[in-house]
Specification:
Layout: H1 6-10, H2 51-62, H3 69-72, E1 78-86, H4 89-92, E2 108-117, E3 125-133, H5 136-151, E4 161-163, E5 173-177, E6 183-191, E7 194-202, H6 206-224, E8 256-259, H7 260-264, H8 270-280, E9 284-287, E10 291-294, H9 298-312, E11 318-320, E12 330-334, E13 337-344, E14 347-353, H10 356-373
Antiparallel strand pairs: 1-2, 2-3, 3-7, 4-5, 5-6, 6-7, 8-9, 9-10, 10-14, 11-12, 12-13, 13-14
């Protein structure tokens, strides 16, 4: 039975008699330094009752069936934005701009998009998406309308021309632009009520043509293997989001719970992340103002933290002090941010801040929220 969320929503103050939160002797009563975050516990999410909330939930579930960009070619070693659910036509403008007024977009329901590139040279990249429409007829119409918007003479995309890529379905539309010092290829293919879209660019033409073909083949296989779509509108049945700091920024990624495979999408080497998630027994990932995971055991939770720390490290990173009276938390800093991580029973808290103090306050608050879940 979980404790009430009310007390922690007001503030998280941990006062223990003679022991710190990790059980070691200490100087006296303990008070975690949570700053403003102690009053920012996320409320239970409930059901997706609005159209936008339902589309966002469906998009998060679709993410379980998206391709891994790094597996297409390991040269794509840096995840990029947009990688998110597409819960509205407005969201889709991050994928193909200036298409919100196309007639077919009235039939758009939801989708998911992911992006990746070469972090060293920054000369190759991919944006990939699955759009779900109201029916197969609308998905088929979207192929011509979306590709047509990129072929229009009065657009920035005026250098695109239709081409054929061997092995792509006859009903696909593929286009190519080689007049900006790079070769860009985009492919549009309807599969039932879904559209598979891939955009790729590189200095040579062979690479993007190969990538869009491979992306289509793998994405279609994943979609074909999907079972019937769930009509369950519960956003967070296990209340994992209540173990996070809330976020009201409007970020389309936050306030969502993703499955195991979807969680891996947010790492540069998705297959390596998926393997680590499986080792930890993590099947759910809550993304909010801070992040939360539930592993199969406390030991596996600590193993997942090892992965998070390694993923955070770069040539500028260094270990930093744990928050006051929370020695169980690990903190690190690097040139652009600070991060802190903590295991609470089988749960893992993950936070990032612009400076160390901010990250320490976030993880201290999240520790209290996760303690409630671990009752």
């Amino acid at each position: 039975m979980r404790k009430s969320l009310v007390a922690a929503a007001a503030a998280v103050t941990c006062v223990l008699a003679g022991c710190s939160v990790d059980g070691t002797p200490t100087r006296g009563p303990i008070e975690l330094q949570t700053g403003k975050y102690g009053a920012m516990q996320t409320a239970p999410a409930g059901d997706a009752t609005s159209d936008i909330a339902w589309a966002k939930l469906r998009g998060a579930r679709l993410a379980e069936h998206m391709i891994f960009a790094h597996d297409l070619d390991p040269v794509m070693d840096e995840g990029k934005m947009p990688t998110q659910s597409l819960a509205s036509v407005t969201n889709t403008q991050t994928v193909i701009p200036d298409t919100d007024r196309l007639p077919v977009m009235k039939d758009f329901q939801y989708g998911f998009t992911l992006s990746s590139g070469n972090g060293t040279k920054n000369d190759t990249g991919i944006n990939h998406a699955v759009y779900v429409f109201s029916d197969a007829e609308a998905a088929s119409a979207s192929v011509g309308q979306l590709s047509g918007s990129m072929l229009k003479d009065d657009r920035e995309y005026s250098n695109y021309e239709r081409v054929r890529i061997p092995g792509m379905p006859a009903e696909s539309v593929t286009i190519h632009d080689g007049e900006r010092g790079k070769h860009t290829v985009a492919a549009f293919t309807a599969v039932g009520q879904r559209l598979i879209y891939t955009w790729a660019d590189a200095p040579d033409r062979d690479w993007p043509e190969r990538i869009v073909k491979t992306a289509y083949d793998r994405q279609k296989s994943l979609l074909d293997a999907m079972g019937p779509e769930s009509d369950d509108r519960s956003i967070d049945p296990d209340n994992l989001l209540t173990g996070t700091v809330s976020d009201d920024s409007g970020n389309p990624l936050t306030g969502s719970v993703y499955g195991q495979r979807a969680a891996a999408l947010f790492y540069s080497d998705q297959s390596a992340a998926l393997a680590a998630l499986k080792r930890a027994g993590i099947e759910q990932f809550a993304w909010n103002g801070t992040q939360a995971y539930r592993a199969a055991s406390h030991e596996q939770a600590e193993g997942w933290i090892d992965f998070l720390v390694a993923d955070f490290e770069d040539e500028t990173s260094r270990k930093a002090a744990s928050p006051q009276d929370l020695n169980v938390a690990q903190c690190m800093t690097r040139d652009d941010r600070s991060g802190c991580f903590v295991a609470v029973g089988p749960y893992v808290g993950e936070v990032y801040g612009t400076d160390l103090k901010d990250a320490q306050e976030q993880i201290s608050a999240q520790y209290g929220f996760l303690k409630e879940l671990d009752q």
